[in-house]
Fold this sequence. Notes:
alpha+beta
Amino acid sequence: LLMYIPYLLYKAFGDFMKVYAQALDLKNNKELINEYENHHRNVWPEVLEGLKSVGIIRMRIWRINNRLFML
């Protein structure tokens, strides 16, 4: 299940800032989830540069059991 939920969160620098949320369910397998987390611990510089180039200045991801939530 993949959901994109665009919404306006707060006013920043005199303009509204768009904030996007995404929820994703991983396979409910502890071994695979650990492997997924280990793989994503060290983000490649090219990925960070790509995110910044399209205006993404901050990203947070939480995991509860097998559900990921990105803001």
